[in-house]
Amino acid sequence: MPAFSTIANRLSALEEFGTDPGSLSADIYIPENFPKNGPLVVVLHGSTQSAESYDTGSGWSTLADECGIALLFPGQKKANNLIGSFNWFQTGDSQRGGGEPLSIRQMITRVVDDHAIDPSQVFITGMSSGGAMTSVMLATYPDVFAGGAIIAGLPYRSADNMMEAIIRMNGYGSPSDSQLDALVRGASKFSGPWPTISVWHGDRDTTVDNSNASSIVRQWQKIHKVEGPPTRVEMVDGVPREVWCNPDGQVVIEQYIISEMGHGTPISAEGDEGLGQAGEYMLEVGISSTRHIADFWGLTRSGSAHRADQQTAAAS
């Protein structure tokens, strides 16, 4: 039997997932309709948030019930960071094989083993410091993830200490494009295929400047061989979606910059397909990042159909 105990809300605490060098907590949600060899989404909260509050705001467990998705919520402890931020800017917590990244990797291994998850369908998303740690995980463990979604986050290794982190959050001094590329390539010995990248940011974000979104895109463009302007721009729920397609015609990077939105996760809680609940850093803007990210990964009914279309196009 998996080692977890029931706690408040919908999530359950995961215990004994490894050596846990980053001293993190872990919660999981496995819906009743979860199929054998189903997918796993790793969800990283932002500063001042918890796994439970981020799930309530984003609606991930509601979508998990709808689509049969297993969820893992790594959690930061205040003993590690007073405002509950993942330490994405600390050298010891931004490299493969140690610190917070290894703790998250150990959690994933435990959940995949306990719940017969398809290891080729592991995805990761996060907001703010959780978004920056998503960048860390995608760079340091690209062999683990099929895709990642970075919300109001920063590129991998754009900062190596607290002072640099504050400067980068304000939009100053980002590494050059060649440095951004080299940082990812140097983070592991992996040579591909690389995880797909989804980037979300508000154009009025005064906590993490939205120039970081374009830096994240540029960090992954050369790796995915999609340098230059987007392949196309389309409107999704009133928001422009920029996409970059690889030579096989598959979308490997997407970006949403949401007009008039500040710092937080974009949600759409109303209507038949509404998800989540508005609150601090959970922003009702009429588009659900949760649902569209899951679509991009092929985890919803419409997303599965879109992924099948892409695979057909690539094969033709």
Automatic annotation (TrEMBL):
<dbReference type="InterPro" id="IPR010126">
    <property type="entry name" value="Esterase_phb"/>
</dbReference>
<keyword id="KW-0732">Signal</keyword>
<dbReference type="InterPro" id="IPR029058">
    <property type="entry name" value="AB_hydrolase_fold"/>
</dbReference>
<protein>
    <submittedName>
        <fullName>LpqC, poly</fullName>
    </submittedName>
</protein>
<dbReference type="InterPro" id="IPR050955">
    <property type="entry name" value="Plant_Biomass_Hydrol_Est"/>
</dbReference>
<dbReference type="Pfam" id="PF10503">
    <property type="entry name" value="Esterase_PHB"/>
</dbReference>
<keyword id="KW-0378">Hydrolase</keyword>
